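cron nightly-structures :: item 1 of 1
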Amino acid sequence: MVDEDSMIIEQKKKQLLATIGKVVLEQRRKLKKGINKFSFEYDIGNGLLSRLENGTTDTKITTLWKLANAFGLEFSQFAKLIENQLPNNFNFYE
């Protein structure tokens, strides 16, 4: 049996991954690059990139850092874009 706290954490994780995916997709589209070209140019697998954009996979911080750099952003700026699209005071453990 899954307890209520675990279900809430899983929902929050899905929300965070969907938001990351949305930001990644928006930033890639700003560069006007298709998924294949972008993934080739920045050495990020197109399957991984697709799953990230769809919010269906978690990833390493190193991949997120590479994405930030590919978008011409500092990692903190990239994280802020994500944070700004989440509800105020987003927290896994409320």
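cron nightly-structures :: done
The mean pLDDT is 95.
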